[in-house]
Batch of 2 targets.
Target 1
Amino acid sequence: MRLSTAQLGSSSRQLSTSARCFGRRAKIRPVQEALHEDRSTSGRRRDANVTKMDRFQLAPERYAGTKTNIKKPVEIAYFSYDSDHNLLPFSDASLKYYYPVLFNTHHTDRNRPIDLSIGFDTFRNRSDSPDEHLDGLLDTLEQLERRQGSKLDVDVITWRGMMTKILTATYEDQDGFEMNATCFQDTIFVEENHEHKLARNGQQNSFNRRGGPPAEMFQYWGYKFETLSMLPKPWAEVSRDVIEAREQEPVENYSQYCSIVKTGIGSTSLVIGGEVDGVTDYKPEDPEAPPRWIELKTARAPVSPRDRQIHDKKMLKFWAQSFLLNVPKIVIGYRSRDGFLENLEELDTHKIPGLVQQHGQFRWNGNICINATGAFLQFLKATVRGEGVWRIRRAPGRPEIEIFKVADSGVGDIIKPSFLAWRKELSA
Ligand code: A3P
Ligand code: MG
């Protein structure tokens, strides 16, 4: 248990205050205002009302030579979004089953590359402008807690995407990120800062428009590859016609299956929710059984040493994303510059760090990533405590992650009111 009895008291006050006074979407102070009040970080904690900057150093060499324990991620809950993106807690309606795309195999007489652009004009691409906060995750966790009759006892609750950014941060310094965090009833809730995400996506899109296909086409190729490689039901329940009609199947990204796992990195326990692309053959009923998740990715086949470097950095992201949910297999669909699928590669997630260490042009170290993540989570627990909302920020190219307070009270927009109300009901 991290917080003192006094802090627990303030947490339950926070519940009523945030639900009653601030309503759903309490205002978070702008970053500039918070930065204006930036104070030095000489280690000594200051008055909680004074905004200050805490910094976590990312240099990989700091995290070499130790070993951080990982608690095997086990699925504790799951949900589907249907094809209109409605949330279905504890439903596997959108779970997909892997069956390799039909080309260059004995299943088919065709061996020409597949054009991933086909059907782009009918792509149902979900806008990323609504801010979903942690809503789907919290609605499902509320159902889980209602079933159990008790609250989840865990240090951190977040989306897998946030943990991927942390896990890769020692080696990936180009992207940058911003998150919001709040501590509520002994648990730190972390969400992406949506405005920052939209601004970044906007920048990337304008960059991509300078030549070649539009940014949306790159995205389409990824989802098209998924559609070509997945079945809506286990293979034995699907007709050959359905399998062969996958090329004509419209592509959409409204539906998803998300797995919610409990895991531990070092001394920090976590509940992480994230999308999984599908399973090979079936989903085991026993959550402790070896999972059969499969992750699909598209990538340009590296040719030059420079390409190889870019690819090895991509492999860091592929590995991190899959490692966090215990996804054992990744299938990479290699494509040409203009979106023709040329080749498939099946990789065991746990072998990727070793492969990159042996043959890589860009040699990241998976143990260092895990050690740094364990240390960061400890730093997070020491920093985000008591009332308020914090910003977690990595500026592109900077060797550190900064955490600073942006609201002195409430939980910001991070925790939805219905979840706060549920927890109030539970502790009444
Ligand atoms: P690729 O990964 O093959 O590029 P995921 O691999 O995480 O399941 O995501 C599926 C697809 O969503 C990706 O396929 C890509 O097309 C799109 N996608 C994921 N993250 C994205 C991002 N940050 N920006 C744009 N598209 C993204
Ligand atoms: Mg994928």
Target 2
Amino acid sequence: MRVGVIGATGAVGKELVEVLGKRRFPVTELKLFASTRSAGTRIKTPFGEVAIEAFSPEAARGLDLALLAVSGDFAKQHARALAAEGVAVVDNSSALRLEDDVPLVVPEVNAAAIGKHRLIANPNCTTAILVVALEPLRRAFGLKRVIVSTYQAASGAGAEGMQELERETRRALVEGQPAGHAVFAHPLPFNVIPHIDSFQPNGYTREEMKVTWESRKIMGQPDLLISCTAVRIPTFRVHAEAVTIETERPVTPEAAREVLAAAPGVIVVDEPGANRYPMPLTATGRDDVEAGRIRANPVFGDRGLDLFLCGDQLLKGAALNAVQIAERLRAA
Ligand code: 2RA
């Protein structure tokens, strides 16, 4: 397939190219698009050296697949037009995720939603990591309420987020100066910030509401009660999520562990006696979402469960999920 990655120099764009290579996606020609500033730069890829181009609809003509890792405005302007020209499009932005005619897909959960569609939205990273573990529990025990608290890595804010964390940590430790900030609302080193994306009239942030809106759409349960508190922490990679659920039917930690162990995209890491549980350090670079600390939650009696998830948000939360969608589009 002739594949274009749009936003190829960003944190997600770079991962997209690597994941295409790792999964041996049948790329006959790779086109990399980024801002005019990067145009002409040659970069090494698993498919050979490729020169970055500035995007234009003409330059993208003839592509079979376009993977978009750019802004919502770009997606609004170009995604539908590309799909109308016969290009299969996977959009990583939030612009089209809740549109009725655009499936929002995590293949382990709702691959069937792809159907004959050629334009598919990739969910927010926090949502993708969550629903991979929630859906098998939902199928087995039913879901009534979900409460999530997240611990999100700097790379959720892109390459600039990672650079700011590194630079400001050095400033504090090496130069003895107060850490500064530009990408985040406050200095991130030695801090946690309960603020990701903009505040909404209901007091939640947009990041928190994305978890609610998108989880409902992907799992096809529009009435699911779900509340999220999203927090930025000073790690480079992997979003962690503490999840409490109330199920429709009785659940035990043993039964939940069994369900999660059999679920695609999830790996159970749950041996507290051996200090083994999900962590950013172990989940970094891993395709599967780690699930552990699985225990009964007494607040909800025999229908309550607590668990802790760690997922590489640049992989399952972004690039890997997008390429998995592309694999399904190719097979459709
Ligand atoms: C973040 N989830 O971590 C967002 C990125 N989409 O900032």
